[in-house]
Structure formats: structure tokens, C-alpha cells
Amino acid sequence: MNADTEHPNRLTPEPDAPSEPIHPELPTDPAEDTGSLSHVPVLADEVIQALAPAPGKVFVDGTLGGAGHTGLLLAAGATVYGIDQDPFALDRARAANHAGLHVLQGNYRDMVALLAGAGVTQVDGILLDIGVSSFQLDDTGRGFSYHTEAPLDMRMSQSGESAADVVNSYDEEDIAAIIYEYGEDRLSRRIARGIVYAREKAPIETTVQLADIVKRAYPGFSKGIHPARRTFQALRIHVNDELGALRDGLQAAETLLVPGGRLAVISFHSLEDRIVKRFLLGSEVLSPLTKRPVIASDAEQATNPRARSAKLRSAERVGSA
After folding, report:
1. What is the Rg, in whole angstroms, of the alpha carbon atoms belonging to the chain?
2. Residue 51 burial (CB count, 10 A)
3. Dihedral sign computed on CA atoms, order 230, 64, 108, 90
4. pTM of the predicted model, to two decimals?
5. If DSSP codes are grouped into helix, strand and coil, which group holds residue 17?
6. What gap in Å lies between CA 56 and CA 59, rounded to an integer?
7. How confident is the model at residue 156 (pLDDT cuts 50, 70, 90)?
8. pLDDT tens digits, residue range 255-312?
9. What angle do CA 59, 92, 239 make, to 5 degrees?
10. Are strands 257-267 and 79-84 parallel, antiparallel or unpaired?
11. In whole angstroms, what is the distance from residue 229 CA to residue 225 CA?
12. Are 70 and 82 in contact (CB under 8 A)?
């Protein structure tokens, strides 16, 4: 891999220095994890208000996950095409056998082709709930969490290059660039050096192995937000090309939405939200419905810690199809 050719917008790592935490996607305290394979949809009321589902309308849930938001759309009488690349999410959705739900396997970045295969060329609304889902985080065998011992995987689709492949085969410079750009960690170079040093002795195969390596790059760390949070986020984003998929998905929304159709996007950290904000401001056919992102109420944040960093931006399709 060559960071300059494959990722032309990648930032060069800055000199090692502490940085402020980005909006966390996981609970600060691991005790806040539910420990169950369940999905509580964030900003549920706000999403329904933005999308305005009704009987006869057709929607796309591009990130089906645990089908929490989809269930609300179905309850309003809408038809939903749920897309997910995670085979476990697809199995769960099919087993639930929701009336009005059509399950499609793939990445939402390809939703135009996926829907065309199902005979659909236009829809009334699209929902994108970006990032890793609750049940993926809670499934300790998937390798998304640094709190529990598991294979270092992080692949949502269960195919292709894993996080273990990255840390064991990429050059030190490339690893540092990934951690800096996608994790916004100014100790990226130090962490990358630690990873390369460790893998020379033995392959890095588990989540705990990697978390311990990252922790050693932070002298004096004892408590608080685990320093591995940023590295794990960066590897997950890279392995799944999450930001590239988001850009493609936003462009697909312009193609699929009927005039008056709605788009709702939930992001969980600044990298995603920045992409959504800039895309909507620059779009000629999508008009933002709010000037600022909608955030969860104090009550929701108190009952669902994963809602604390959620930001919802929505837009309406204007002009002719």
C-alpha cells in the first residue's frame, strides 16, 4: 500500500503531541455497555420527524444493522429496503420477517445498483446511520472492542482485509498515517513504531494485544478514556472504507430521491459529520432542513450513552428528478 497514491487526501502525521478527544463513538466507561446483542436506535423521534414516513412511501435504510430505525418506518406504514454488508445483520433481519421489509446484501454505497436489481429506481427517503452498530460492538467476537479478548478483525462484511492484516503487513509510515487521519491521534507515529516493534517478535492477532501496545505509547496512563479508542476507530474506518462509502452513499441519494424526498444521516464523530455537512452545502439538489445538526436530548443521552456523540443532519430533494 502507498498512502500517497491510494489516499490522496491523507494527512501527513504531525509530530507526536497530545490532542483533544474527538466525539466518542463508544461509551466512555465499559460498564456502560449493555452486554447484549441489542440495538437501541439513536435519535429515533428526530429521524421519523425528518423523514416523515407514511403508508405507500418507499424508504431505504442503508445501514440496516439491528433494524431499530427500520422498525419505526415500517410501523408508520412505509415499505423499506434495508441494506447491510454484515451477514449477521442480514440473518437477524430475515429471521424477524418484518412485513414490508426487503433485505438487500451489500454496501449502501452501491444502493443505486442494489435497488435497481430489485426493480426500484426512486424512493421517498433514505436513512444512513453511519459507523458500527450496537450489536456489532456488543458481539465480543467481532474484534471491534478493545475491552475484551477477540481476533483482531473489524470487518463488517466478514470478507477482505482485516485489521490484523493492516497492523502486521503495512509499513510504519502507512500505519501512522491511518491512525492520524482516521483516529486524529497525534501520537500516531509513536503508536506505529510500537506496533512494528511488537510484530517483529510475534504477529499481533488479538484486540487485547493491540490495546496493550497502544497503551504503552501513552506513558503514565492509568485511568480514563483508553488510548486505544482512537487507534481502533482508525483501523475500523480504514478496513471498511467507511468515509469513502459515505461519500458514495451521499451521491447515490441525489440519484434515488424523488423531488420532496428526504435524506437523514446520523454520524458519530467529526470526520463523518464534516463530510455530510460539506456535501449538503455543496449539493445542487439537496437542501439542508436545519442549519445545525440535531443532537440527542439530555434524557436520551442519560438512558442510551451511545447517543451522546450522535449528530443528525437531514435534507430534502429539490428540483426535478
Report:
1. 20
2. 24
3. positive
4. 0.83
5. coil
6. 10
7. confident
8. 999 999 999 999 998 999 999 999 999 999 999 998 899 999 999 999 988 899 999 9
9. 80
10. unpaired
11. 8
12. yes
C-beta separation of 98 from 32 below 8 A: no
**Cα-flanking dihedrals φ and ψ of residue 258, to 5°?**
-75, 160
The rounded distance, in Å, linking the Cα atoms of 20 and 186 is 9
Cite the DSSP H helix spans in the chain. 3-6, 44-51, 68-75, 87-96, 111-117, 134-138, 163-169, 172-183, 188-199, 207-216, 228-240, 242-256, 270-282, 298-303
**Looking at this protein, which amino acid is placed at residue 128?**
L
For residues 300 and 42, give the distance between their C-alpha atoms in angstroms, rounded to a whole number.
8
- Separation between Cα atoms, residue 313 and residue 147, nearest integer Å: 31
Spell out the alpha helix ranges (H) of 85-141.
Answer: 87-96, 111-117, 134-138
Taking the C-alpha atoms of residue 154 and residue 133, their distance in angstroms, rounded to an integer, is 12
Q: Work out the burial of residue 234: count CB atoms within 10 Å of its CB; fewer than 13 is exposed, 13-18 middle, 19 or more buried.
A: buried
Using a 10 angstrom Cβ sphere, with 0-12 exposed, 13-18 middle and 19 or more buried, the burial of residue 49 is: middle
DSSP state, 200? T
Q: How far apart are CA 232 and CA 27, in angstroms?
A: 14
What integer is the mean pLDDT of 240-257?
A: 96
Question: Could you tell me if 287 and 316 are in contact, meaning their C-beta atoms sit under 8 angstroms apart?
Answer: yes
